[in-house]
Structures
1.
Amino acid sequence: MRDGTLREAFGTGTAAVVSPIGSLHWRGVRRTVGDGEPGELSKRLYETLTGIQRGELPDPHGWMALVPDAANSAAVADEGRR
C-alpha cells in the first residue's frame, strides 16, 4: 500500500552498519516511524550485510578483501628485506 505514510527509516555507515530509526523529533513534535521498531527492510539489509562480513553469506559484489594478520605481515616483510 502506498499512501505516503513513513513506514521505515534507517541510517547506515561503516560502523553503524544499518541502524533503524524509531522516531523523529522536529520543531517540538515527535513522530514515531512505523511502529517504532526495526522494519523488515532494515532487518533484511542488516542480516545480509553482517552475513557477508562474517563470511556466512556469499559476497556477490567482491566487497571483501583478505587482511593478513600482524604475525604473517611481519614475516613477509622480514623475508622481503633479506
Note: The two ends are 68 Å apart (CA to CA).
2.
Amino acid sequence: MIISLVLATRNRHKVEELSAMLSELPVRILSFHDFPDMPDVVEDGATLVENAIKKASEVALFTGLPALADDTGLEVDALDGAPGVCSARFAGEPSSSEANSRKLLSDLSGIEGSARAAAFRCVVALAMCGDDEVRTVEGVTHGVILEEARGEGGFGYDALFLPDGHDLTYAEMRSDEKNAVSHRGKAIKNARALIAALLDAP
C-alpha cells in the first residue's frame, strides 16, 4: 500500500531533506508545490510544538491527505534559548538566512568556547484529515556556534553549527552524514513509527 503524504512546507531544502529521510517508506511525497492554491499557514505559535501542529492540521484539512510538518529552532544557551521559535525570522522580515546568521554572530560577540553551546530542536507533527488528534515527536542535537561560517552546503544556520563529537559543521557534511546526526533526522526517525501505523491502518 502506498499513501500520499503532504510535507507542510514551501522550503525546497526541507522538502529535499525530508524526502530523502522518508525514501525507504512506501509513501508518495507531495508538498506545497503540488497545491498552488494552498494558503500560507501563519506560524504564530508560542512554541515549536504549536507551530508544527498548526501547519500539519491546516494542510491536512486543505488537501484531505495526511500531512507532516516540522518546526525547528536553534536554542543558544548564552542567549537564554533564543532565537528558538523565532529562528527563521531572527533578524526580522523579510527573512534571510544570511541576515539571521549575521545577527547571531553579532549577539554572541565576545562569548567564546563552550559558552557558545547551543541545541537544534525539531518538532515533527503528523495530522490526518478529520482526526482531531495530531501526533508529535521531536529530535535534538547539541553543539556549539562557531565564530565564523564553515561549509557551503545546508541552509539556515548550518554553516555556524558544529554538532558535539564531530569535526564538521552541518554545512560541511554530506547530506547522508547530516541526516544521520541532525535534529531533523532524529525527529523523522522517531516519526517513522507514526507513519508506519498510518500505513498499517485499514
Note: The chain has one domain: 3-200.
3.
Amino acid sequence: MPNEQDQFRLVMRQWASGISVVSTKHDGVFHGMTVSSFSSVSIEPQLVTISLMKDSRTHDFVISASIFGITVLSETQQEISKIFAGEIPDTENRFNDLETWTMVTGSPFLKGGLAFLDCKLTDVYDFGSNSLFIGEVVAAKVGNGGRPLLYFDQQYHMLQE
C-alpha cells in the first residue's frame, strides 16, 4: 500500500491542467520554470496565484525581484515545457536560443505562447514545501491563437478537434 505522500501524488496526477512558464528578471538575468499550479483569483483587482517550490532558484528570484510573468504554453511548446521543468538545470540559462519579449515589468515572455500575464508580486504565503505567490496583473496579452499544452498523469496531451 502506498504511503500518504505517494497516494497524494497519485491523486493529484488525475487533475488535468494547462502548462505555463513562470519567469522573472533578477539582476539583469532571466529565470524561469514550468508550473501547472497557476490560477486567477480576482477580476477586480486583477490577481493571479502561482505556487513555486521553496528550493527552486526561481522562487527566490521572484521574491527578490517582486515581479513575474506567466506564459501559457501552446501545444507546439512541449520542448519548452521540458526545458523549464528541469531538462536544463536552473543554474544554466534556460532562455538560451529562445525568442523572448517583455511588457511592463521586464519579466520575459516566450514567443509562441497562447497568453501572457505580467505581474507585480503583492503577497507570498509559505505552505510546506511551496510558497503561494499572489500577483497583481499589470499587463495582459492574448497570443496568436492555437491550442493549449495539457498535462495529465505525468504525460503531455493535446486537445482533439
Note: Helices lie at 4-12, 57-65, 78-87.
